[in-house]
Specification:
Blueprint (H helix, E strand, L loop, with lengths): L57 H10 L6 H10 L14 H11 L5 E8 L4 E7 L5 E8 L4 E4 L3 E3 L8 H5 L1 E4 L2 H16 L12 E4 L9 H12 L13 E5 L3 H7 L7 E5 L5 H7 L8 H15 L3 E7 L7 H12 L6 E7 L13 H13 L3 E2 L15 H13 L1
Parallel strand pairs: 4-7, 7-8, 8-9, 9-10, 10-11, 11-12
Antiparallel strand pairs: 1-2, 2-3, 3-4, 5-6
Helix pairs in contact: 1-2, 5-6, 7-9, 10-11
Bound molecules: iron/sulfur cluster (SF4).
The site of iron/sulfur cluster has 12 residues, from α4.
Length: 409
């Protein structure tokens, strides 16, 4: 006779070693007592990023030119050069009167990002850029070529206030939000680099954008939304990238997930979950102290219902911390109880750091985690980790370059 007793997830919790996030100071900490604090406060920036056409819609660009005493109708041509030909160089704009080119570019296409480093990895199929902004703050973006697409991972903030203990950016705290144009300029530079064949394999079209670089994009919501407009609207308004090819990742700012669902832009939502139980997630993702796993998954499911876009659940597998089979089962149960086929789980093997509490799961443990999810009917794809030989995790390159410069000074 079949055993009809309810399956309990409580008993298996006792099995297996449990390492907790607080066992050692956060990665990159300089003091043994260091503990980054969750902060929603955006520090006051030192000045404002120069105004750029990507901060404005087409009507705003026309208005800006008019106010500067320049012909408003040139905003259209200027925008096409920027969003279609990926240039801000007056010499390329031969359809504009030579006498006006420099003035038009000075007015709406100021220099926003200076390249500090560009490091290649994965046989030239990945390039990680470190950029310096007008006020000296630095951000990263990573360009990756895959078989079927070319993807840019962009930063939306300099640093991050979410304080996730496994993340180099989280240890820096938040310096400031990026302006819309500072986000878009990362894309323009990457689109030009792809077209010009800087990635191994020859010229490519930048097709996908993921907001998974430095920062929590939802904290910078007011600049994120115009950035999504510039990405998705076609020229002269923007790049014309399909919303389906854009992913916004969040650690779980529930009210803003709900708001994003109403914006009418069906971008993919990626939820950095990393633990299906509040007990662990409270320590692993400090924002969980505000919005619990259940609230977050409810909001993610609402997002799916509103947009029809399947939600990605990101899950970094950390040895003995969150990689237990019972957690995979609990995750599957939490997803299945809200419906079927609405979420896709991406387990991500953490970059190995031998001896650290933040190390990757053993291969057989990772496989068991994946098998448990699949047996429960959850679509699961282990994510390719790119750039692990160039400080692949967000914020690591910026932190490393800063240390090198300090050693040299
Ligand atoms: S993992 Fe993301 S949200 Fe958490 S501290 Fe790092 S950048 Fe911020």
């Amino acid at each position: 006779m079949a055993d009809s007793r309810p399956v309990s997830i409580a008993a298996p919790r006792r099995r297996g070693r449990q390492v907790l996030p607080t066992d050692q100071p956060p990665e990159g900490a300089t003091s043994p007592d260091a503990k980054p604090r969750l902060s929603f406060a955006v520090p006051v920036a030192k000045g404002k990023a120069p105004r750029h056409l990507a901060d404005l819609d087409l009507a705003g660009r026309k208005q800006a030119l008019k106010e500067a005493g320049l012909p408003a109708f040139r905003a259209d041509q200027l925008s096409r050069h920027y969003f279609t030909h990926f240039t801000r160089n007056p010499a390329d704009m031969t359809d504009l009167p030579a006498s006006q080119r420099t003035a038009l570019c000075d007015e709406l296409l100021p220099d926003l990002l200076s390249q500090v480093r560009a490091l290649k990895a994965d046989q030239g199929k990945t390039i990680k850029y470190l950029w310096e902004l007008f006020d000296g703050v630095r951000v990263e973006s990573v360009l990756m070529r895959y078989k079927d697409r070319t993807t840019l991972c962009v930063s939306s903030e300099a640093g991050c206030g979410m304080a996730c203990p496994f993340c180099a950016t989280g240890q820096m705290g938040l310096t400031r939000n990026l302006s819309t144009a500072e986000i878009i300029e990362q894309v323009r530079q990457a689109a030009a680099a792809s077209r010009d064949g800087e990635l191994a394999g020859g010229p490519a079209r930048l097709s996908n954008i993921v907001f998974m670089g430095m920062g929590e994009p939802m904290v910078n919501y007011k600049n994120l939304i115009p950035a999504l407009h510039r990405l998705t609207q076609s020229a002269p308004e923007g790049f014309g990238i399909s919303a389906r090819n854009i992913t916004v990742s969040t650690v779980g700012l529930v009210p803003l997930i709900k708001k994003l669902a109403t914006e009418g832009m069906p971008v993919t939502l990626a939820v950095s979950l990393h633990a299906p139980d509040d007990e662990l997630r409270d320590d692993l993702i400090p924002v969980n102290s505000r919005w619990k796993v259940g609230q977050l998954l409810d909001a993610a499911h609402e997002y799916f219902e509103a947009t029809g876009r399947r939600v990605s659940i990101e899950y970094a597998l950390i040895e003995d911390m969150n990689d237990h089979a019972w957690r995979a089962q609990l995750l599957a149960d939490e997803l299945n109880k809200r419906g079927h086929g609405w979420a896709h789980v991406n387990p991500i093997p953490l970059n190995p750091t031998p001896g650290s509490i933040w190390t990757c799961s053993r291969p057989q443990v990772q496989q068991e985690f994946v098998n448990t999810l699949r047996r429960a009917g959850i679509t699961t794809t282990v994510r390719d980790t790119r750039g692990s030989d160039i400080d692949g995790a967000c914020g690591q390159l910026a932190a490393e370059v800063l240390q090198q410069e300090r050693r040299l000074s």
